[in-house]
Structures are given as structure tokens and as C-alpha cells.
Amino acid sequence: MKKFLLTSGLFFVVFFLIDKGLILLRNSAPNREVDKRLEMILNGKIQSDILIYGSSRGGRDIIASEMEDSLKLPTYNLSFPGSAIEFHEFLLSETLKNGNKKPSVVILVVDDPDELLPSSRINFRLDRLYPLIKYGVIRDKLVEKGGKNYWLSKLFIVHQLSISNFDFRPKHFKPIDTLLADGSMPIDFKDPRFTGDFITNTTMYDIKKERPAELNSFTRFVDLCYSNNIKLLIACPPNFYKPTVGFSERIAGLVKDKASILIHDANQHAYSKDPGYYYDDVHLNKKGAKLFTAELVDFLRKNYLVPGAISK
Amino acid sequence: MLFNSISFAIFLPIVFALYWFVANKSLKLQNLLLLGSSYFFYACWDYRFLFLLMFSTFLDYFTGIRMHEASSKKMKTFWFWLSIGINLGFLGFFKYYNFFAESFAEFVGNFGLKPNIWTLQVILPVGISFYTFHGLSYVIDIYKDRIKPEKNIVEYSVFVSFFPLLVAGPIERATHLLPQIKKNRTFDYTKAVDGMRQILWGLFKKVVIADTCADFANSIFNHSGEFNGSTLALGALFFTFQIYCDFSGYSDIALGTARLFGIDLLRNFAFPYFSRDIAEFWRRWHISLSTWFRDYVYIPLGGSKGGTWMKVRNTFIIFLLSGFWHGANWTFIVWGGLNALYFMPLLLSKSNRNNLETVAQGKMFPTIRELLGMIVTFTLTVLAWIFFRAQSVGHAFDYLGTIFSRSLFEMPSKKAFLGFKTHPGLAIVLIFFFMIIEWLGRENQYALATLGQKWPRTLRWAFYYILIIAVFLFMGQEQQFIYFQF
Question: Is A204 strand, coil or helix?
């Protein structure tokens, strides 16, 4: 027994020392990230009046710098491809803390029809959180989302790490995810699989299939803006298919009078059904994004959502 | 209390210390401690069902003695059927009531009738299938005069409730475990270190491989309608490794934990994915359940002694029962039936006992014939797991239909793998690493049993640290073991 206790004692002491040494690895991880937007939020470096949240549609279909030039108001895009409303809510609530400037307008880009439904296309993007685990708020979020264990992350540095901490290769963007200085990710090319045939089939939106977590996050997102006196614009950008029947009505029903809604109407814009303005059937290309951004600017002005703006 | 939880990491050292430092002078005290800690372990799941476990234990203990002391064959049979009836009654009620009620309603519904069937919100007591089978084997063995009943209630209760095996096996036999419980146990350094090593390997399998594969398998199976054939094939592969590493990982932790207390449990897995045919696979997969069905169902039915028809009938019976044991769902029954079908060519050609030894014994690589056998067996197993994992039989057929379509030759969909902490490529690398270690250790009780024993201590420890770091890196929220639901 004595030998067993001594050997296991020595084994655990060595492990303890190795564990504490890993703190260097943990703290250096954020420096290797190329997309710094989440860390900017945590460090209070977001100082814009207009902020855009959403999934890839928010990132690719709206060009923040174009909006900034038109409205003469600092604008920044905080949309993350593949992210769901729960993630957007987390980003917004963190933006409102940490010494960031409180925006006067928030644009939330919604996905028709996946916004509140179970979907494999959008999720919480835990992978964006792992490299930033040195921040307590990120650690707590990972614990809450099941990515980490509370006690283990308190006791062991090694549990705070993830596989990405051991990837020392310089990170780079894929052509599709290239990030501009304003946080937007417009695309200049076309998906080779995009046929250019407008999809006329449509489906009925089914409220019964909505996920409670997404529904709660959506409501909290709207309420966060409302209670902080931030004007919220919910935008549904153009798609190369017919809108889901009942989706926009459902969104309108949820926000009531707490936000403005812009549902792109394909019948009023010539570019909507022109494949030359699309990357694929759910994303615009840069040319299309410029037009949709202009449409948003127009809407913000006409509806007096932007401070100091006048109706054209 | 899960094996991969903080609470177990606190519970185990406390029980270990009390067992070897406080209760070590008396076997009676050690067994009382094991019983108390086992009941505490079980109560952490749901204390209400602890009384069910205690009742089931006392029932088999009492009827065992009554059978042995029965003055007539008639009385002996009475006590036997009383025990079997109550045991299976509990199991049937908790596990199968809703299944039978719903299936009956569906069946008569085909004839235009709409019966008012009551379905209940029955909670399945954890481990009920395992401890019921424990008790059944004990009672059957006494009835058949293979063993004498245990008179010491504490020792018998430890046999049924010993915490490492309580919730998911291995399904022990009185002939194997009871003598160990009755014998004085002294601390054995080699056994304890071996136990720690097996626990580490079990944790690696569960946390690193099974839980990582689970993310992808769940994502793909839950949205299978959205993906192409190659993605679904990957989903089935991920589930194949998830279920093996989840259950065999659990078994390794159970066996390792028992070794820390000087007790050897039955081996449950023997590298089944290296099997050269389905018969070999079933000799190596969930061994304690397969041998249970062999000894208590297949052999009493006549086993393979009768003609061809009897062999075929008996094989189908045990495979279908084995499927049904896993749960009240047609998917498990179809899974069992499919495995019986796989078994048929071997049975009919009398080649089901061709591969009794470990593949490539004493050699590094298998022969081409062995390799082909392993690939075919593995592929058949992967296809059968689709039924095991699918939500319904229809879902499984749709899933298979997509796999066997042209889209099998397309690139897998990236959407299925978005947002997880592990890249699917890394998961595949980890599976390869795992399979290499398993291959190197395939002639032992478990993969790490002798691996690295001849290495210098620094190197050996470095290897263990890598495994531990991997466990810490991949561990998230405590993940349930799949077999706890059975």
C-alpha cells in the first residue's frame, strides 16, 4: 500500500506541475486568432453606433462600411457565419457590458426559416469561444453550454484548454470568410453549385417545431434592446427562393411594437431574382450586398431609426 | 453518479481509503462498507428505486434459500416461479409496459378498432435490466442445483449491488463473484495499478472517443433527411465507435474500479471490431450478456444439439431476445433479427466456431484473408448499428436508402460538422490512434494491460499523461453512458 500511495502521489505531483505550466499555452491562444471580434467585445473595443448581428447572411449581405458612409455613423458587423440566435443574444449582452459603446441602433438579420427551428446550419459557435477561455465570462458560458465542467475548469488549467490550443499553425481566412475591417464578409464570387434557377417551391412555417431555447433567446434579444432604449431593426435579406409562408408574420408577432421589421420584398426590387447578385441561394454576393445595404439605409432613414437622419 | 463525474472522483478515493485503512481488519466490515457505498452510489441516481433494488435482492435471497430447503419438488418449483415471475414482472412493467400497450393499440387499430389503452409515464429504474439478470441467474442456478444459496444477506447483497457493476454490468454470476466476496482480500499493488490503468483507458474511450463521436453521430442521425449518402455513412461510422467506446469504456472503468478493491469482474469486451466473422463478433461483444443468454436461454432450448431447424430457431430466439433486452422499441428487435440473419450462413455451414483465437495471434499484421474478414464483419456491424441508433425502423430504412444512393459518392456535407469543439478530421485521427492501441493490446484483457510495461518509467508516464490531458481536453458536461438506459 505504501508503494502504491507513493507512486500515485508522485504521479499526481508531476501532473500538477505540468498542468500549471499549461497556463502559458492558454493565455497565448487569443493572439493566434485572426477573427478578433469576440475578443474586441470582451475588451470593450466596440465603439460603433450601429451594430449588425446575425449569421452568415448578416455577414455577407450587409456591408457595414457602406452603411457608415451613407449614414455618417460608425457601423460594425458582428455577424458570425453558422451562428444562431442564442449566440447573437450572448454577443449582444456582452456588448452591453465590458465598457463598449452602447449602440443606438441594432440590426438583427434573421434566417428564413431556420431562425427559431431545429437546424444543422446554425448553432451556438462554441468553437469561437474555446480560444478565448482565459476570459472568465467565456469559461462560464462554456460551462453553461456543456462544453466544460465547472469544477474541473476551476481546478485544472488543462481542462480550460481545447485542441485548438495545440494548433500552432498560423491561422488564415478561407476566401469565403475573409473579414473586412468593418466586420463584414462580402463575397466576390459564385458558389459553383449554385444553378441560378429561382426556387419557386415554398413551405408553410410550423410554429410547433420551434425550439424553446431559440425562441427565448430571440425574445431576450428583443427585450435587451428595448430595455436599453436601443432601436432594433429586424431584417430578412433576399433569398433566391420564395419566402416561407408565415415566417415573417411569426417574427412580427413575436416582436410586436418593440422593433421595426424589414422583410425584403422580391417583387419590389429588380435584383432580387437576378442570379448575378447572388453567391448561392441564401447569400448575396458583394454587388447584391451593396444594394441590400442601400435598402437598409433607406429604411433606417425613412423610419427615423437613425439619430439625426432625415426622411428622404 | 456517473463514472466520468466529479462526484465519482471524490466518492471513489473516500471508499478506497475507508476500505483499505479503516475496514481492512475485517472482511465483514469491508463487505458492509461496499454494500453501504453501493447503496449510496445507487441512491444518488434516484433514492426511490433503491427500495426496489433492496426488494429484488431480498426476494432472490429468500426464494433461493426456500428453494434449497423445499421439502418437495413442487414447493421448489413454486418458489422458483415466484421469484422469476416477480423479477420479470418488475422488468416488464418498468421497461416494456408502454411498448406492449402502444403496440397492441396499433395492431388492433389496423382492424378499425380504437382501444382506450392506458400508457403510463413510467421512469426506468437505472440498472434494472442488469440487476434483474443477476438475480435470475442466481435463482436459476439454485433451481438447477448448480450452486447452493448464499445464507449471508450482506454478502449476497454485495454480489447484486457492488457499485462498479450495478448500473450497467458486467452481468455477474454467483459462481464467479460470490466466492471473491466471501474471501479475505489483501491489498495487491500490481492489481491496483492495473485497475488504475484500466480506469484511465476506459475514461479515454468514453470521454475522448465516444463523446466526440456522439456529437457528430447525433447531429447526423437527428437531421439525416438533410444530408447526402456519404455524410450518413460517416454518421453510422461515428456511431459505431461511439457505442463501442461508450460501453466498453464503461466496462473498463467498472473492471478497473473493482480491481482497486481486490475484486475481478467478468470481462465484457474482447476487441470485437477485430472479429473475422459475426459469430466471433458476438463472442467478443457484451460477453457477459451473450453468455447469459447462451447459458440460460439457448442451451435450455436445446442449443445446437438438435437439427438444423432447432438451431436456426434457437439462434433467432436469442438474438431477438437480446435485441428486446436493450429496449422497448422495434428498432432493437430488428437489430437483433438482422444479426441473427448475419449469423445464419455461418451456422448453416457449421463454420460459426472457426475463429476462436485472437486474430493474428503472435504476429503484428493479419493475413489478407483475415483483413478481408474483419472488413466485411465490421461493415455488416456498422449497417446493423443504424437500426440500433435510428428513431424508428422507417427512419433506419430511409437512412440506409440514402447511403445506398448515388450521393454516397459525393463529398460529405460540411453542415453536419459545424460548431463542434472537434474537427471531424481530428476525430478520425483519434479513432485511428485508438484502434492502433487496441490492435497492439488485442491479446490482453484490455488494450493498455501490457502496453508500455517494458518502457522506461519516464516514457510510460509521459504516455499516461498524454491520455490524461486528452481526457481533460475533451471532457465537457458529464455525459450519460448509453447503456444506462437499458
Answer: strand
Distance CA A128, CA A110 (A): 20
Residue B420, chain A, CB below 8 Å: the answer is: yes
B469 touches chain A (CB under 8 A): yes
Strand segments (E) across B319-475 = none
User: Which residue, A122, A66, A35, is CA-closest to A298?
Assistant: A66
| A146 contacts on B by Cβ (under 8 Å) | 476-477
Residue B326 a catalytic site member: yes
Buried b (16+ CB within 10 A) or exposed e, B409-444: eeebbebbbbbbbbebeebbebbeebbebbbebbee
Matching residue, cell 462560464:
A140
Assign B443 to helix, strand or coil: coil
Q: Which residue of A has its CA nearest to B465?
A: A15
Residues composing chain B:
486
B460: nearest CA partner in chain A: A11
Cell matching residue A178 = 475573409
Instruction: Taking each helix axis as running N to C, give the angle between helix B128-143 and helix B174-182, from 0 to 180 degrees, rounded to the nearest 10.
Output: 90
Q: Is B193 on the interface with A (CB under 8 A)?
A: yes
Domain segments of chain B: what residues? 6-186, 191-276+355-485
Which of A90, A78, A46 is closest to A224 using CA atoms? A90
Q: What is the ipTM for the molecules in this complex? A: 0.79
For residue B222, give how far its alpha carbon lies from the nearest alpha carbon of chain A (Å). Answer: 9
With beta carbons under 8 A apart, name residues in chain A contacting B415: 120-121
- Which of B196, B465, B476 is nearest residue A15 as measured by Cβ atoms? B465
Which residue type does B119 have? T
Residue at A137: amino acid letter: V
Task: Please tell me which residue in B134, B223, B286, B326 is annotated as part of the active site.
Answer: B326
Q: What is the pLDDT of residues A100-146, one digit of tens each?
A: 999 999 999 999 988 999 887 888 888 899 899 999 999 999 999 87
**Calpha distance A302→A108 (Å, rounded):** 18
3-state secondary structure of A239: coil
B161-187 burial code (b ≥16 CB/10 A, e <16): bbbbbbbbbbbbbbeebbebbeeebeb
pLDDT score of B12 more than 80: yes
Are B464 and B196 in contact by the 8 Å Cβ rule? The answer is no
Contacts by residues A13-17 (CB-CB < 8 Å, ≥ 24 positions apart): A14/B461, A14/B465, A15/B465, A15/B468
Mutate to test the interface with A, among B3, B414, B477 (most CBs of A within 10 A): B477
- Residues 77-96 of chain A whose Cβ lies under 8 A from any Cβ of chain B: 82
**Sign (positive/negative) of CA torsion B90, B94, B96, B100?**
positive
pTM for the full predicted model? 0.82
Task: Report how far residue B248's alpha carbon sits from residue B438's, in angstroms, rounded to the nearest whole number.
Answer: 12
- Tell me whether residues B419 and A124 touch, CB distance under 8 A: yes
Rounded to whole angstroms, the Cα distance separating A223 from A182 reads: 26
Mean pLDDT of B382-398: 95
